[in-house]
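Query structure, 432 tokens:
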């Protein structure tokens, strides 16, 4: 390689200085051309440059990939951000070695799969008549509705599953370390060819991601009776509003993104380095957790979006993805308010009375099962009435009331979804 373009995110600290330094290093190694750009790079052709180096984080590389789609120009990521799973160098010590290998043509180019997404309304293509491209992910989620949304998933025209959730993430292997990972999805080698479906905060005990073949055509349908406006987001760069009855059809794109790999198994080695680095960030995470507890204690925060907004007002640099992860790790739950809405809360076992009820449940529990809006809890003989009284005394939002025999408790709930939520609450109490 001899002709380079440096595409930088000036929002990153010292990005301009870093770009100037890399430019000088490349020229000293024998590069013929090194240009620097900060904004749109659409329209660049394969004959213009041998390589584009992105200086920022994973988001900078994603923006470059969209702008270069179809050009065939390979990308190299230099990380100036936090994690940078898609980048090959994250420190000043690593950069010279990467540049030397590029000049010496000592590298491998991986073709990363991309996704096409198209909105279908009333059986017809989107009014924009546009097929969106994504290297990372396509996210179908609520936009204006306060509660969770129903999504029906079809694969190759066959019904797969229905979710009641905040959203659905359809990720490429490259995007598996982004929103998918924050939502509990698996990490996949970015050179692989497959698609990962991960629900966001599903109201269900079944939360596992589903891995599909790259060739599968996936459809996310929002039932017609669903109120409010939802959205389909493509790599965070383009968004289409969705209404009840709309369908988002997602398939593998014929276009790929060429990404330079330096050395063998570079991705997993970089993962290990970044995970070790994250261990030093636990203090920062702890401060975020403290602020979340403070906020939900003072305010009636009903949605994840509201929590993100409040954290940002408090000076925390958070995203929907990081807050989704924090909600899951903190095991936040929702309770009803006097106004009829719901709010986030932390189950407080520190209350001596609550701890007493939880201890009764743990000591007596044998198992549980459900049937629609009825939860059946099996206990040791003679303890069912005590468990029923404990569940009633906790004033759990999902419970209408409990009755008991000798070793069986019957809990009536408000709906099938509430039965599932109650089972999850009890599991949390049993785990402590």
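Result returned for the query:
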């Amino acid at each position: 390689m001899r002709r380079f373009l440096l595409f930088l995110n000036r929002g990153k600290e010292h990005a301009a200085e870093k770009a100037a330094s890399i430019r000088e290093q490349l020229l000293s190694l024998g590069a013929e051309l090194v240009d620097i750009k900060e904004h749109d790079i659409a329209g660049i052709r394969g004959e213009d440059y041998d390589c584009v180096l992105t200086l920022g984080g994973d988001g900078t590389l994603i923006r470059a990939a969209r702008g270069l789609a179809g050009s065939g120009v390979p990308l190299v990521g230099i990380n100036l951000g936090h994690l940078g799973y898609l980048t090959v160098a994250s420190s000043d010590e690593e950069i010279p070695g990467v540049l030397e290998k590029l000049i010496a043509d000592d590298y491998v180019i991986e073709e990363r799969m991309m996704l096409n997404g198209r909105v279908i309304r009333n059986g017809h293509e989107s009014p924009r008549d546009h097929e969106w491209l994504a290297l990372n992910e396509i996210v179908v989620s609520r936009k204006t509705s306060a509660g969770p949304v129903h999504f029906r998933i079809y694969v190759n025209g066959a019904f797969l599953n229905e979710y009641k959730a905040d959203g659905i993430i359809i990720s490429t292997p490259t995007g598996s370390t982004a929103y998918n990972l924050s939502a509990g999805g698996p990490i996949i080698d970015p050179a692989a060819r497959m698609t990962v479906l991960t629900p966001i905060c599903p109201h269900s005990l079944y939360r596992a991601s589903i891995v599909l073949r790259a060739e599968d055509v996936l459809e996310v349908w929002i039932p017609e009776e669903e109120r409010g406006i939802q959205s389909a987001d493509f790599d965070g760069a383009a968004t289409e509003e969705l209404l009840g009855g709309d369908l988002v059809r997602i398939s593998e794109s014929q276009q790929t993104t060429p990404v330079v790999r330096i050395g063998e198994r570079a991705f997993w080695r970089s993962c290990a380095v970044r995970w070790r680095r994250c261990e030093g960030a636990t203090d920062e995470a702890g401060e975020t957790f403290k602020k979340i507890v403070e906020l939900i204690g003072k305010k009636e925060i009903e949605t994840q979006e509201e929590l993100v907004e409040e954290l940002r007002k408090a000076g925390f640099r958070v995203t929907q993805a990081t807050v989704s992860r924090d909600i899951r790790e903190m095991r936040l739950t929702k309770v009803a308010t006097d106004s009829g809405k719901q709010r986030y809360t932390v189950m407080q076992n520190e209350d001596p009375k609550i701890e007493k009820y939880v201890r009764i449940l743990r000591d007596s529990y044998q198992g549980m099962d459900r049937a629609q809006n009825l939860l059946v809890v099996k206990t040791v003989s003679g303890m069912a009435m005590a468990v029923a009284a404990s569940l009633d005394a906790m004033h759990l939002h999902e419970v209408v009331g409990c009755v008991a025999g000798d070793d069986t408790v019957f809990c009536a709930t408000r709906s099938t979804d509430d039965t599932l939520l109650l089972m999850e609450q009890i599991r949390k109490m049993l785990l402590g």
